[in-house]
Amino acid sequence: MERPDADALDRARHHAQAWLDGLGTRPVYAPASLDELRQSLGRPTPERGLPAAQVVDELARDAERGLHGSQGGRFFGWVIGGGLPAAIGADWLTAVWDQNACLHASGPAAAVVEEVAGAWLKDLFGLPAEASFAFVTGCQMAHVTGLAAARHAVLRDRGWDVERQGLSGAPPIRVLSNADRHASVDIALRILGIGTDALEPLAMDDNRQVTPEGLSAKLAERDAPTIVILQAGELNLAAFDPFAQLCPIARAAGAWTHVDGAFGLWARVSPAHRHLAQGIELADSWTTDGHKYLNVPYDSGLAFVRDADAHRAAMTMTTSYFPAGGGTARDPFDWNPELSRRARGFAVYAAIRELGREGLADLVRRTSRHARALAEGIGALPGAELVMVSDLNQALVRFGDDARTDAVIAQINASGEALFGGVSWRGRRCMRISVSNWRTGEADVARTIKAVGAVLAG
Ligand SMILES: Cc1ncc(COP(=O)(O)O)c(C=O)c1O
C-alpha cells in the first residue's frame, strides 16, 4: 500500500536529524548568496505534481545552504532562541494533528493546552491570576493584542466604544513611551489606528530607565486617554524600567501601562534575575516571546492583560456559524487577533514541561553567564573593546572604529564559526552579543572567542 505521508515524514525526520547533528560542523552563517538561492530554489510554476518524499528531499537539499545555524550554540544574532527537543517534537505533532485553535469546538485539546500553559506562564512570571492571555505569532502581534485592549479601556473610560464607533471622532489617545522602545510597538500603534504621532517620549536617566518624575510631569501636562509603554529588556542594554515606582503613578492618573517584555519578562523566572523586573506585575498588559528565551520554534508570542473584559471586548466577535458559547470552555478566538490559527500552545506547553521552573531559571542564569563570558573574553582581545555587559543576556563590544567594527562582524560571520549582528549604539557601531539558545555552552563560548581572535589577528 502506498503511504506518501509515511515516506515524507521519514525523509523529514532524516533531514531534521542530519541538520541538528551537523550544527557543530556547518557554518553558522548561511553561506549561500541571494543569487545562488534563487537558482537552487527557483523553478517554473510546477505543472505536474511529484511524490511527497521527493519534494521533501529536494527542499532539504535546495534550502540547506540558505539556512543559518540558529539552532546551534554559536548563533548570537538578534535575539533568537533555539528549539528545545520537546518543543520541536510538539511542533511537529502540531503540524500533523493540524487542529484549528480558533474554538474549543474546532480543537478541543489545543484550546485546553493553551488554558493550562497560559496559567503556568502567569504563575512563572508572577502576573495576576485574573489576567487573560493570547498565544500569538510574536511580540509584535502581542503588542497589537495588548494595545487593542488598552485602546478599548482608555476610550471606554471616556464613554467611547472603539470597537463599534472606530477612532474617527474619538478622544485622541496619548502614548507616553520609553524612548528606547522596540520598533514593533510603533507598528502596533500604526495597525491599531492610534498612529505614531500619538507617541511622546518620556524622560530617561543615564541607565536608560524612565524616571518617575518624568512620567509624573508628562501625565500632568494634560488630561487625555493615556497609554504608557515601558520596557523589560531593551534590545541592547537589556534595561528594565522601574515598574514598582512607575506603574502606581500611571494608575493613579488613570493611564494604562503596557510592558514590552519580549525577552526581559523571562528574568522573572530566575530568582537571581527577578529583581530586574520588580513590580512588573503592577502593569496592565505584558508581552513576550516563546521563540526567544523559551526556545520554542518560530513562531510563538504571548500577550497577557489584567483587565480580561477589555481584552475580550477588543478581540471577540459573534457569528451564527460558531457554536454558541456559554459553557466553561476557553475559546482562543475570544482573545486572539486571528480566527483560524495554528495550535501554538502545544509547543509552549512542551517546552515548559521539559524545563520546569528550575530548568527555566537555569536557562536564564546560563545564558546571562555566557553573554558576560563572551563579552569579557572578546573585549580582552587585542583590538577589541568591551562596551557594555547587561545583567541579562545582552552585551556590546566594538573593534576600533565604526568601519572596522562592521568589517570584523562580517569576517566573523563569513568564517562560519559564529554569527553576530551590528548596531549603532550611542552614535557608535557595536557588535551585539545576544545569548538566548539553550544549546550554548562553555565550549561554544571558548570556540567563539578563539574565532573572533583569529579574525582580529588575521
Ligand atoms: C524588545 C523587543 N520587543 C519586541 C520585539 C519584536 O518581537 P517579534 O519579532 O517576536 O515580533 C523584539 C524582537 O527582537 C524585541 O527584542
UniProtKB/TrEMBL annotation:
Keywords: Decarboxylase, Lyase, Pyridoxal phosphate. GO terms for molecular function: aromatic-L-amino-acid decarboxylase activity. This is Aromatic-L-amino-acid decarboxylase. Its EC number is 4.1.1.28. SUPFAM superfamilies: PLP-dependent transferases. Its cofactor is pyridoxal 5'-phosphate. The keyword Metal-binding does not apply. It is an enzyme of class 4 (lyase). Gene3D superfamilies: Aspartate Aminotransferase, domain 1, Type I PLP-dependent aspartate aminotransferase-like (Major domain). Belongs to the group II decarboxylase family.
